[in-house]
């Protein structure tokens, strides 16, 4: 009872930010993912279950500036080609397609098709040198694709025993990725050798804890965020993990601090204000939480009532989010509606 009262008190300290969001229109079905341009700070790109990729310029009206119908299947994930954001990679089903936005046409034909994954792709990312893609899929495997050749470089298998939800390259290691899945495992891989060298089993950690919520909210890993290379002097070499139940790790941004009451589906280090100061998370509880995790990092305290900066009630389950380096209109949210919502975090 005392713990429940503590979590309610923590939530009450931070009022919901209910300012009316901008509503970006262009999709005909649920929106699945969003990415923000680094070269064009007010441009975002979104994907949806309608097989569309939409480009929005937030300096303009709230309708898509460019609509790309790229698949008859849902587009599950997007990423830019690092260093050339005119080119994007979109995953749909078991395939990754590469498009050059400068080649605008009524019928979008991919420049490249990559068909190495055996089951549906959940996440696709490009490394800093624009030399590799990583694609995590339902089989539990991660495919590393050499986009210079192009060819399959390595298959990372025998790590996950269930769906692999997410993967990220580590910017401080040239040949390393980190992956997470529905087996509650977080794995760090040396993909040049094709094997993992570090494993965190959140399911085992939770089994050893006293938590009663594991059965209804198991310790699945849904998303991973790593700081960008220019954030490392302040954030150090860390990762943030979006999960179900809480494990026995260093910092828990959980319900006891006013956090999510259902699984966290996505998260990012913030690009607005001081880069990396906030971790922004979205969940199946229809909420977005903005965490001032740097107060924990800077002060080194374990019970920080001020760590939750703000809460936004989106009204639908959150599928994806991204942030923009701007003072306003700096948080973009994709949810189970067909409208992309844009909020201002101050």
TrEMBL record:
Start-end of each WD repeat: 157-199, 257-292
Keyword Repeat found: yes
Span list, region Disordered: 1-27
Ranges of compositional bias, category Low complexity: 1-12
Alphabetized Pfam families for the sequence: WD40
Keywords for the protein's UniProt record, in alphabetical order: Repeat, WD repeat
Keyword hit for Repeat: yes
UniProt protein name: WD repeat-containing protein 53
């Amino acid at each position: 009872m005392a713990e429940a009262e503590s979590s309610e008190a923590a939530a009450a300290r931070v009022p919901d930010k209910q300012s009316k969001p901008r509503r970006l229109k262009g999709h005909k079905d649920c929106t699945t993912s969003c990415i923000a341009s680094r070269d064009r700070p007010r441009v975002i790109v979104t994907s949806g279950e309608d097989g569309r990729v939409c480009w929005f310029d937030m300096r303009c009206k709230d309708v898509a500036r460019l609509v790309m119908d790229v698949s008859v299947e849902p587009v599950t994930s997007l990423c830019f080609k690092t260093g050339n954001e005119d080119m994007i990679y979109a995953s749909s089903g078991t395939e990754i397609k590469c498009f050059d936005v400068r080649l605008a046409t009524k019928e979008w034909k991919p420049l490249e098709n990559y068909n190495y994954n055996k089951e549906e792709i959940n996440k696709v990312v490009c490394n800093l040198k624009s030399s590799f893609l990583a694609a995590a899929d339902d089989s539990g495997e991660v495919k590393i694709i050499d986009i210079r050749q192009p060819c399959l470089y390595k298959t990372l298998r025998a790590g996950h025993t269930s769906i692999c939800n997410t993967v990220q390259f580590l910017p401080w290691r040239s040949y390393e990725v980190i992956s997470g899945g529905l087996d509650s495992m977080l794995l760090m891989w040396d993909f040049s050798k094709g094997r993992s060298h570090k494993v965190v089993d959140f399911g085992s950690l939770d089994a050893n804890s006293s938590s009663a919520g594991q059965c209804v909210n198991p310790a699945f890993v849904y998303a991973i965020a790593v700081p960008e290379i220019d954030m490392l002097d302040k954030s150090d070499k860390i990762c943030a993990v979006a999960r179900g139940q809480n494990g026995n790790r260093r910092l828990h941004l959980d319900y006891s601090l006013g956090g999510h009451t259902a699984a966290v589906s996505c998260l990012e280090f913030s690009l607005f204000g001081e880069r990396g100061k906030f971790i922004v998370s979205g969940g199946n509880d229809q909420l977005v939480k903005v965490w001032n995790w740097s107060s924990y990092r800077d002060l080194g305290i374990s019970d920080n009532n001020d760590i939750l900066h703000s809460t936004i009630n989106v009204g639908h389950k959150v599928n994806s989010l991204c942030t923009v380096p701007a003072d306003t209109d700096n948080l973009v949210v994709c949810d189970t509606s067909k409208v992309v919502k844009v909020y201002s975090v101050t």
